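Final report, closing paragraph on structural work. Over the funding period we assembled a curated collection of sequence-structure pairs, and we close with a single example.
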Amino acid sequence: MLQTIADTIWGQPCLAYHVQPSLEPETREAFAEVQRAFTALWPEPLHVGPKHGLHVTIYPLMTVWGDYDKDAYWRQIAPRIRTILEELCTGHRALDLRFSGIKVTNTAIIATAAEDSGLIAAIRERILREIPPPPGQKPIVYDLIHSTLARYRTKGSIPDEVVERVETQPLSIVAPVSRIRLVRETVFPCLVTDELASFQLG
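Its predicted structure, as stored:
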């Protein structure tokens, strides 16, 4: 049995900063079709991400958690983050994120992807090497490319056969990425964001 953890901050105001790839409307619609398929199988209530909020996080520069001066920390790191993204994205070809699997975790249902150009790995490595983590926080090692498609409204026990049926649902989405974005999140989970900068690929 899978013991799920309820998301208690869905739709709540927050403050976080992320590096994310652009997603095309066609990609979001393809994700929505996958959502419709697995929600029909799930026995408990879900928070299903609306299309406008679906996203992929390359690196969470500042998460919604943490008791520190987020504005001061952002002012400290923002210039270096912009420089890193400018250096890595300028002249780099556009990307394809290839989503090929659904993974059920205790906190969410996600779609997992691969990316063969190495840009996402390079961005993560530079940030880990050059950007100090927020005060009192440990560096985040982010090695999975994924999009969160749903979270759990309630704590529950999900039979293994339901998890298996969801994880074996067919998934094949090629998501073209033409820009890398720097975004500020103000309603969790990325239901409201502001684009602070955009770095063109190709």
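Helices lie at 25-39, 70-89, 119-130, 160-167. The radius of gyration is 17 Å. We thank the funder for supporting this effort.
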